[in-house]
Amino acid sequence: MTTFQRMVLASRPQAEVTPDNFRLETADVPALADGQVLVRNHFLSLDPYMRGRMSEAKSYAAPQPLDETMIGGTVGQVVESKHPKFAEGDFVVGMGGWTEMSVSDGSDMRKVDTTHIPLSAYLGPVGMPGMTAWYGLTQIMQAKQGETICVSAASGAVGSVVGQLAKLRGCRAIGIAGGKEKCDYVVNELGFDACIDYKAGNLRADLKAAAPNGIDAIFENVGGEVFDAALARTNAFARIALCGMIAGYNGEDIPLRNVRQLLTNRISLRGFIVSEHMELWPEGLKELGMLVAQGKLKFRESVADGLAAAPDAFIGLLKGRNFGKQLVKLA
After folding, report:
1. Residue 283 CA to its chain's centroid (Å)
2. Which domain CATH number covers 74?
3. Tens-place pLDDT, residues 154-191
4. 136 and 259 fall within a common domain
5. Quick one: 21 and 152 in the same domain?
C-alpha cells in the first residue's frame, strides 16, 4: 500500500456541523524516521469533544487546524517500526486521527492486549470514555453504597459505564436517555434501576418517581433542561461531575434555572477533562479492563463503515442518533 485516505477539517461550522466542513484526501504513505512508528488504524473513535475543537472559541485545548487531519482516538496495528518500544504486529491505541494510516513518535501510543478484550473496546469502556466515567464517579461524585446517582446520556459510551460502575459499588442508578429503546437497554441490559425517557415529555415527574429519596450525585453530559430537572431533585451536599454540555455544542447559550439549588443544597460542582489526570489512568484502566474481560461491564457500539462515512456518523452522534459508542471501521 503506497497511499491512504485521511479526512481534514475544510471549514469551521457556523452553527450545526455539515458534511461540507470536511474533505476526504488521498496521501502518500510516508517514509519513517528513526523513533517513528507507522500504524494502520482499524477503528476511529468519534466523540462529542471534537465539536468544540472545530471551533476557534477559547477552550481547554487548541482548535483543530484547518486543512489538517481531524483529531481523534484510534486503535490499529503497527505495520512498520523504527521505535525500540514497538514492533511490527503490535496492537496499539493512540491519537491517529481521522485517517487510515498514521505516523507516531510513540509518545501518544500504548500497546494493548486483545486476548480477552476486543480491540474496539480500547476506544470505549477500556479507553477515554471509560476513564471519563471512572474518574467522574470515583474522584468527583465519590458515590457511596446506598446513594442514588443520576446519569444523563445514560446509553452512551460514557454514561453507560458510569451507571454500571455505580451499581457495582452498591448505588441506586437512575439514567436519562432519549427514546424507549435506549431506556429499555439501560435498564434491561446495563442493570440501571430506572431510566427516564426525556423525549416522553414528563421528565420532572418521571425523575421524581424514579428518585423518591432524592439524588446524591449527578454525572452530567447534556446540560439544559435535563440538568435542571436533576438539580431540582438533589439532596443536601450532592456532588456533580460536569463532563459535557451536548445541548450547547453548536454555540447555543444554556441557561441554568435551578442555580439556587447549588447554594441551598451546598452542592459541589466540578467540571473536568480526563486527559489532565493521566496519573490515575493505570488504576482506572486496570479495573475497567478486568470488568470487560470478565463480562461484568457491558457495552454497545454503533459502527460506521469506512472513512467517508465519518462526517455523517459524527453529525448523527451530536444529534443523539448513535446507540452506545460511535466508531468508524477503517480496516
Report:
1. 19
2. 3.90.180.10
3. 999 999 999 999 999 999 999 999 999 999 999 999 99
4. yes
5. no
In a domain, 282, yes or no: no
Write the single-letter amino acid at 233.
R
The per-residue DSSP string of 224-252 comes to HHHHHHHHTTEEEEEEEEE---GGGTTS-
Which residue ranges of the chain lie beneath pLDDT 70? 247-253
* Residue 53 parent element (H or E): helix 49-53
The cell for 16 is: 450545526
C-alpha–C-alpha distance, residues 253 and 152, integer Å: 19
Written as one string, the DSSP assignment of 140-196 is: II---TT-EEEEESTTSTTHHHHHHHHHHTT-EEEEEESSHHHHHHHHHTT--SEEE
For residues 288 and 274, give the distance between their C-alpha atoms in angstroms, rounded to a whole number.
15
CA atoms within 13 A on the CB side of 91: 14
Measured distance CA(135)–CA(140) in Å, rounded: 7
Backbone angles phi, psi at 121, to 5 degrees: -65, -20
Q: Can you give the pLDDT at residue 172?
A: 98
Domain span holding position 244: 128-275
What residues does 23 pair with on adjacent strands?
8
pLDDT at 250: 61
Ramachandran category for residue 308: left, alpha or beta (phi over 0 → left; psi -120 to 50 → alpha): alpha
**Distance, CA of 269 to chain centre:** 20
Residue 246's pLDDT is what?
72
For 20, the grid coordinates are 461540507
Report the pLDDT value the prediction gives residue 248, as an integer from 0 to 100.
62
Interacting residues of 231 by C-beta distance below 8 A, sequence separation 6+: 218, 256, 258, 261, 262, 267
CATH number of the domain residue 172 falls in = 3.40.50.720
For 290, residues 6+ apart whose C-beta sits below 8 A from its C-beta are none
